[in-house]
Design a protein that fits this description.
The chain has strands at 2-13, 18-22, 27-28, 32-36, 41-45, 49-51, 54-56, 58-59, 64-68, 78-83. The protein is mainly β and 85 residues long. The chain is globular and about 30 Å long. The protein starts with a strand and ends with a strand.
């Protein structure tokens, strides 16, 4: 299983369960991501992407996005897109 870095967490909103980041690569709803940091390491499917508080099906490099996450994300955690195969 290969991974490609798509960004670094800028902020985690605990009351929403959302991380924000600026994308370094494309990301779509349905993709699998891995969030990894000093005390963080989890994998999940992307079920929601927002750009400027609007739901989108996908986002591209340079977009500032919000992603709903299943566990606690932390500032500076790396976000990887998991590439099957």
């Amino acid at each position: 299983m290969k991974e490609k870095k798509v960004g670094t967490v800028d902020h985690y909103y605990s009351h929403l369960g959302v991380v924000t980041l600026t994308l370094e690569g494309d990301l779509n709803v349905g993709d699998t991501i891995r969030v990894k940091g000093h005390t963080t390491d989890f994998t999940q499917k992307v079920d929601s992407i927002q750009v400027e508080h609007k739901d989108v099906a996908g986002a591209k490099k340079g977009d500032g996005v919000g992603l709903r996450v299943v566990e606690h994300g932390r500032t500076h955690d790396a976000v990887f897109k998991v590439i099957e195969g």
